[in-house]
Design goal:
2 copies of one chain form a homodimer.
Chain A lengths: L6 H9 L11 H7 L5 E3 L5 E6 L3 E7 L5 H12 L7 E6 L3 E5 L21 E2 L8 E2 L9 E5 L2 E5 L3 E3 L6 E4 L13 E4 L13 E7 L2 H4 L18 E8 L11 E4 L4 H11 L22 E3 L2
Antiparallel strand pairs in A: 1-15, 2-3, 2-14, 3-13, 4-5, 4-14, 5-12, 6-10, 7-8, 8-9, 9-10, 11-12, 11-13, 15-16
Helix pairs in contact in A: 2-5
Chain lengths: 296, 296
């Protein structure tokens, strides 16, 4: 009975062509059937390609619209090859995988931008964001939705990126330090939304997440690897735009203003297919991720 | 700057004695300072001790008050040593680790109890639950709180266990099959609350979670290991009550009616210490787990 848990899901994933004449019944079917017009190319200079020990690749999509100063620094650090030879130093279960310069002695490249806690959210004054609302309650914010390919939490004055699974944030010292972007972490468990607006969120892992999430947990305090454990070498981190054309990954995100995304959200909140008896009637912001795919 | 992300958290974890005269400022400090009266022993027949390849141990706390039929079956299967020689067959990133009889041919022990979808929630009629409310919005349920050591979601007629990180559910075939309890999975990512009331939740991993969450992800559909991959052998699964006294793990859970738990919840929802600038003012049901500790 190994396969019982997911028999229906498997059927759905493989049945999309067969039911193409009907409206898609599941989020996976919506994504599989979404027209080309529902997808947007992710710019190559917003893709960070991390290669770790064993040649394993992790691709991170950066969010310059939400964290412009931190993202500019991360782009500068990648162009300076700053992370080459650094390592993954911390893996705390149900929390984060963190990487950077374990020696804490490596000098910064010139021209990094100063950051502050004001960079943790985008003020809404004098700007009109096109928001696709998520009409369900959120424990952490008055309203939530999607803007320009990203989930956002909002109050009356600002919008910010949530700490969802796979999302990437910037390590910092005690406030008012807001971090340069050289020390990064990715969330590997239940969304630690208490970090929202306390740390800069700069992007999300869109490929190779398992190369981070399945790493051995560190036995030191807060999951740091001890001297007896193996810090995972980072071979290189590059912007896709700086890679040779043949090595450049290409990804697309679903347009959050598209009909396909509206269908996807409705079905994420109301699963009703062969496997599900009782639709939830709602979905958490971090449990309805924006679909991303490799460019066909 | 490797340690910057968590400098303050580290201080908190190590500073509890130094600040014992002050009210605890963090959830970790509340747990560290909670008096003996705030803790309750977890019964040995509600502890499932799973030993996998390499002698790695995973301890699961069962929830007989919420899933009595499924838990009775799991206790019977453990007493029959049914899982010995089975394996972990599926690891899907940000979803579940699943184990059971990969051959799907192993016969069931006698005396298992019939189950149905009615077992997914506890009816509230003719019963008064002592609920410690969690007074924050939830995307999946009208109300949430804690009952008898467990987080619960509720509507006007029933209460059910949520699919939080580390929570254990029962694989099943298509409805109305509700599973016997022989095929189990543990959540290893963002809480898949859409499964609530669609599958039986029977407990939670309280020790050794990393032995499941750091397993290599399966490359097959839905994360099943392929023939070229390594199914992880399960050496044994026993009830702690059936182990020799010297081998028997002993754990305690925080009393959800205690002052310590109230302080813990308040601080989980309002982090305000050296590291946090901006308290969230709320917390997700799955982001405020009931503290569990090894018995001192």
């Amino acid at each position: 009975m190994t396969h019982r848990f997911c028999a229906a899901l498997l059927a759905v994933l493989t049945a999309a062509p067969a039911i193409a004449a009907d409206p898609p019944a599941t989020p996976a079917a919506v994504v599989a059937q979404a027209p080309a017009a529902a997808w947007r190319a992710i710019p190559a200079d917003a893709l960070l390609v991390m290669t770790i020990e064993g040649g394993k690749r992790v691709v991170i999509q950066l969010a310059p619209a939400f964290s412009p100063r931190h993202v500019a620094n991360i782009q500068a650090l990648a162009r300076a090859h700053w992370w080459d030879g650094t390592s993954i130093n911390r893996v705390q279960d149900n929390y984060v995988v963190q990487w950077g310069d374990a020696t804490e002695k490596k000098s910064m490249p010139p021209g990094l931008t100063a950051t502050s806690p004001l960079d943790y959210a985008v003020p809404l004054a004098n700007r009109r964001l096109q928001v696709t609302p998520l009409p369900y309650a959120d424990p952490y914010a008055p309203t939530t939705g999607y803007v320009g390919g990203w989930p956002v939490a909002m109050d009356g004055t600002s919008a910010w990126l949530p700490h969802c699974y796979g999302y990437v944030g910037v390590g910092r010292n005690l406030s008012p330090d807001a971090g340069t972007g050289a020390e990064l972490y990715a969330v590997i468990g239940q969304a630690p939304r208490q970090l929202d607006r306390n740390i800069a969120v700069v992007g999300r892992v869109i490929d190779g997440m398992a190369n981070l999430s399945s790493l051995p947990r560190g036995s030191g305090e807060l999951g740091f690897y001890t001297a007896q454990e193996h810090q995972v070498p980072i071979l290189s981190i590059r912007l896709a735009s700086d890679l040779p054309d043949a090595e450049r990954p290409r990804f697309q995100e679903m347009d959050v203003a598209s009909r396909s995304f509206a269908d996807y959200l409705r079905l994420r909140a109301n699963r009703k297919d062969d496997f599900y008896d009782r639709p939830a009637g709602g979905v958490d912001l971090c449990n309805a991720p924006v679909p991303v795919r490799a460019a066909p």
